Amino acid sequence: MTSLIAILDLKGKPLIQRSYRDDVSASHIERFLPLILEIEEEGQQVTPCFTSQGVNFMHIRHSNLYLLALSKRNTNAAEIILFLHRLSSVLIEYFKELEEESIRDNFVIIYELFDEMMDFGYPQTTESKILQEYITQESYKLEVQVRPPPAVTNAVSWRSEGIRYRKNEVFLDVIESVNMLVNANGSVIRSEILGSVKMKCYLSGMPELRLGLNDKVMFENTGRTSRGKSIEMEDVKFHQCVRLSRFENDRTISFIPPDGEFELMSYRLSTPVKPLIWVEASVESHKGSRIEYTVKVKAHFKRRSTANNVEIYVPVPDDADGPKFRASTGSVHYAPDKSAFVWKIKQLGGSREFLMRAHFGLPSVENPETVEKRAPITVKFEIPYFTVSGIQVRYLKIVEKSGYQALPWVRYITQHGDDYSLRTALEKGSAPIVQPA
Fold it and tell me: Signal peptide position in this chain (predicted)?
């Protein structure tokens, strides 16, 4: 139960606020940022939830804004934090970007959203597609809708009734992002797989879908044996349409989907992963006058797969100039704003390897700090029709009372995560050969 919702700038000034109950004064908003600074000065970590003078402060940060909820009661903090994330997602879908300017330009619509998404401190409709049916941005049209869409009062609040398509289709994307950190000795220090299942549903009526994956826990609970590889997912999160009780009982993912595009679920795998794309580099520095790089890239996945749009960022000294490049494939350009050069390869086939060389001039006076600076090499890529975890969609059943036939399409993609880094040794005057773990 929430007493007040506010959106603040980074200076703690409220841009917009909505009070749902009278038990918390709006003056507590001004205390939020000083409390944050006080916690930081004491050397403690600022948590999303904390209490001061009997008031619970729950917040998230998005770009240059704080989304803040205040309550005096014993509130379900996780629920309110989730609501704030849903609020930010809805505002982004309405205004494309959530920032100070978009808040100031859309006060009226945001107040309407505050009133529809929460009632007397209790979260209500948080599905953007349903809200957009009766809270529109076309304020100049004097159209008044007396009744909200049936979905608002339905048991299925994320889908409207009466949806019709001439061709019924479902598109399902299984996307896995790989985060990895490799040290200078070639050992993998950290690796994880972050996966998501995204769907585009163009189905008539009120269909029920059942999705089956090669889930290790499901095979163990039912006593079945998997024909191929099975995976054990961690930190599984579902869209609100999934029947959680059914999943907990027999691991069946059963749901009535929203119309259009949405994320059905996300998961994490902490199983060790070898580098899919390996990059090793050596550098030779010549008395501070010039510096030369030799970079080798190798694809450590099967020949039948291909990585698209590979980008390799190799760090160079900030004062490097006069770049010259020679690559056996792809193109190379200097990015001085990133203090790196970028090797781009449009397609990198499995088990293939390529070499490139780079030459830079340096100031005549050598800076010892520049030599010691060793930023990691980062890699970006996308591998279609491939999942590093081995997750598979075993079936996708679509049941609707009219009995129509629907076409399900499944696509797999593996890509780089937010942090795919290789701290390859870049020693002055050496050329190390580093092998993957």
Answer: none
- How far apart, in whole angstroms, are the C-alpha atoms of residue 277 and residue 299? 5
Q: pLDDT tens, 297-347?
A: 999 999 999 999 999 999 998 888 889 999 999 999 999 988 999 999 999
pLDDT in tens, 353-395: 999 999 999 876 555 554 445 689 999 999 999 999 999 999 9
Q: Which fold has domain 169-273+388-419?
A: Immunoglobulin-like (2.60.40)
CA atoms lying within 13 Å on the CB side of residue 315: 17
Provide the residue ranges of all domains of the chain, joining segments of one domain with +. Answer: 4-153, 169-273+388-419, 277-384
Strand 65-71 and strand 353-361: the pairing is unpaired
For domain 277-384, the CATH class is mainly beta
- Token digits of residue 324: 């010259």
Collect all residues with Cβ–Cβ distance below 8 Å to 333 and sequence separation of at least 6.
325, 341, 342, 344
Instruction: Find out if CATH 3.30.450.60 is the number for domain 4-153.
Output: yes
Q: Which two tokens stand for residue 30?
A: 């001004």
Per-residue model confidence as pLDDT tens digits over 77-97: 899 999 999 999 999 989 888
Could you give the CA distance from residue 366 to residue 341 in angstroms, rounded to a whole number? 20
Distance between CA atoms of residues 434 and 188, nearest Å: 12
Q: What is the pTM of this model?
A: 0.72
Domain pair 4-153 / 169-273+388-419, same fold: no
SS (H, E, C) the chain: CCCEEEEEECCCCEEEEEECCCCCCHHHHHHHHHHHHHHHHCCCCCCCEEEECCEEEEEEEECCEEEEEEECCCCCHHHHHHHHHHHHHHHHHHHCCCCHHHHHCCHHHHHHHHHHHEECCEECCCCHHHHCCCCCCCCCCCCCCCCCCHHHHCCCCCCCCCCCCCCCEEEEEEEEEEEEEECCCCCEEEEEEEEEEEEEEECCCCCEEEEEECEHHHHHHHCCCCCCCCECCEEEEECCCECHHHHHHHCCEEECCCCEEEEEEEEEECCCCCCCEEEEEEEEEECCCEEEEEEEEEECCCCCCEEEEEEEEEECCCCCEEEEEEECCCEEEEEHHHCEEEEEEEEEECCCEEEEEEEEECCCCCCHHHHHCCCCEEEEEEEECCCCCCCCEEEEEEECCCCCCCEEEEEEEEEEEEEEEECCCCCCCECCCCCCC
Distance CA 138, CA 71 (A): 34
